[in-house]
Amino acid sequence: MKRIAQILLSPRIGGAETLATSLEQEWRSRGIESHIVYLDQKGEEKSRVRRASQLRRTLRALAPEAVVAHSYLPALYARAVWGSHAPVHSVLHSASDDFASKRSQFVERTLASKTASVVTVSDEQAHAYRSRFPNVRVTRIANGVSEAVDSRTSFRDAPHRIVTIARIAEQKRPDYWDAVVREMHRRRPELVFEWWGPLSGDHSLDRYVLDGCSAARYMGETTHPSAVLRNADILFHPSAREAHSIALLEGAVAGLPVVYADSIAKPDTDPVWAWRYDGGSAAGAVTVLEQTIDNWVSVAGAAVAFAHQARARYGMADVANKYLSWMAAGKN
Which of 149, 197, 154, 159 is nearest to 177 (CA)? Predict the structure, then answer.
């Protein structure tokens, strides 16, 4: 396979965008012509007709041998305009159910003949999709981590910077983050909590990271999460649901203790690098963060020790190979 196009909704921070960028870098390093195509550019939202016509023109010019469309809308458009020209592989990233409505199920069945395959990032997604659409070829390929993420070999004597890397969205629970930060500041005033990621534009959500206590710092967007992780002590993930979070894996590869909700499925059978909290109230995260700090040497040491294993387990080279093998097998 020499030419691959990946379709995304728009340039932004997120698991789908991170995966697509990492896949493109890995494929290009092997001499594969790989291109990322966006339905919308940043800050715009085209009409459905304009999206479809522009995507058709772009794909006609690229002439890809295969298309990998990330998430629901990009997969819908890619199959509708290009599914008759080249294999289109739909990748499901959402932690929520993309096909809960009768309408979305009808559309998915209508596009089945133009669907080369569906890739999910979790077993739960794969099971749910197969139960509804048994005639579509489905596999699970877990997310991986870019080689750009450095693995630390040491840690500070005591933690100071606790970071969150995520877009501001209801799913990521900025309100929960704010409540945890306020309580932790009352108990541990020496700590600093940073949120890295784009604002939503909805002040009812954005205010939780913009108008917090003195311990809370909104740092803006970043295109270099590895640099953020390199200078952090703990990765705190306030979201209550994820399909297969790349942020958690990046924290593991970086050698950080990762604190996340127990409502998120474990990305590993033995997550020695992760400490899970009861996400029902802020008290759950506060308790686990305090335990992490109180046992800092053993906790941080375990995370650093696991970093190189995590890199081997979640490396992007292996993920890129799995995508190529899956797409090639479908042509036989």
Answer: 197
Q: For Cα atoms 140, 172, 19, give the angle at the middle one, nearest 5 degrees.
A: 35
Nearest to 184 by CA among 194, 172, 192, 173: 192
Q: Find the mean pLDDT for residues 1-15.
A: 89
Give the confidence band of 11 by pLDDT, cuts at 50, 70, 90: confident
**Residue 132 counted as domain residue:** yes
CA distances from 162 to 171, 251, 287 (A): 20, 12, 15
pLDDT (average), residues 300-326: 92
Residues 134 and 234 in one domain: no
Say which residue the tokens 């196009």 belong to.
5
Which residues does residue 119 pair with via DSSP β-bridges, in sequence order?
Answer: 91, 139
Q: How much is the mean pLDDT over the chain?
A: 92
Count of domains in the chain?
2
Query: Are residues 248 and 113 part of one domain?
Result: no
Q: Are residues 72 and 200 in the same domain?
A: no
